[in-house]
Amino acid sequence: MKHLLSTADLSKDDAILLLDTAAQMAATQSREIKKLPTLRGRTVVNLFFEDSTRTRISFETAAKRLSADVINFSAKGSSVSKGESLKDTALTLHAMGADAVVVRHWASGAPYQLAHAGWLDAAVLNAGDGTHQHPTQALLDAFTIRRHLVGRRGGGDPDGVGADLAGLRVAIVGDVLHSRVARSNVALLRTLGAEVTLVSPPTLLPVGVESWPCRTSYDLDATLADWRPDAVMMLRVQRERMSGGSGGAFFPSPLEYTRYYGLDARRLALLDDHAIVMHPGPMNRGLEISAEAADSDRAVIVEQVANGVAVRMAALYLLLAGDPSAEGNDL
Questions:
Q1: Under DSSP, is residue 62 helix (H, G, I), strand (E, B) or coil?
Q2: Can you tell me which residues the record assigns to a coiled coil (predicted)?
């Protein structure tokens, strides 16, 4: 596999290989010298057409810790702002000898086009495209879930190396309609054997969600109390993608949304003792999650950010260097 565009493209073996490699990368980050020489001489371009903090910095850190040369390209201040097309940008990167292009784009499908249009000869990693996919976010979420709920609680390897997520239940709560994180997670978690329930107001569920490999619910309290999820993943309410930016076309008011779909102290008390709280960030504190929930002992939100570096190191390594332990496997 030359590119990482969607979690739907990953087999179970592919996903576990990525997670296991991430565990190896995470282990190296506790050393005094964190850099590895693996990608020395390779060039990784971060091509971001949308604003980003966590993902862009995480990919940059991952590439540098693998000793790759990194070029950060922002649409603002570049020729894109003058009207340059995606094709011409890609041809420029090809001329510069990019080995991997990490792309975030507002248009769903842009990374796929970059990967398959023949404009450049480089591995393409999707860092988020429109409301479509964000595969490395789903992988770091799965890595975090496996570490906490399989490794640390399973009595075996502390990272859960080699294990899938069979038998675990994950509730994904909030603005599913605009969330590439939700789409990526549903596909990957099901591939790894977990059960998934989407909890959202009906106005924030996409058309066709009934064909997704998951359950849906409009009742957060009932899901937490009766279904007993092992992990609760809160999604950011993406008001910038809603008309007027207030969410008014999708729910009556922020207060109403919080009352029915916000994670607060009362709802935390409904969770089993081992359950963890997740959020892909950035958080709208006081809207989809209270400060008490975000800062509770159950929350692994900061750990998700740290795990993102290891997962992205694994993805870059496997795409650019291959897996030496599996002949013919270039994922």
A1: helix
A2: none
Pick among 3.30.830.10, 3.40.50.1370, 3.40.50.1110, 3.90.1150.200: CATH of 7-133+306-320? 3.40.50.1370
The amino acid present at 145, given as its one-letter code, is: I
d(CA 326, CA 305): 29
- Give me the amino acid identity at 33: I
2 classed as catalytic:
no
216 is catalytic: no
Catalytic residue chosen out of the listed positions 34, 54, 64, 152? 54
pTM for the full predicted model:
0.92
Any catalytic annotation for residue 82? Answer: yes
Q: Quick check: is 54 catalytic?
A: yes
Distance CA 90, CA 107 (A): 15
Cα(199)–Cα(205) distance, integer angstroms = 9
Tell whether 137 is in a known binding site: yes
For residue 104, indicate whether it is catalytic: yes
104 assigned ligand-binding residue? yes
Q: What is the pLDDT of residues 148-161, one digit of tens each?
A: 999 887 667 888 99
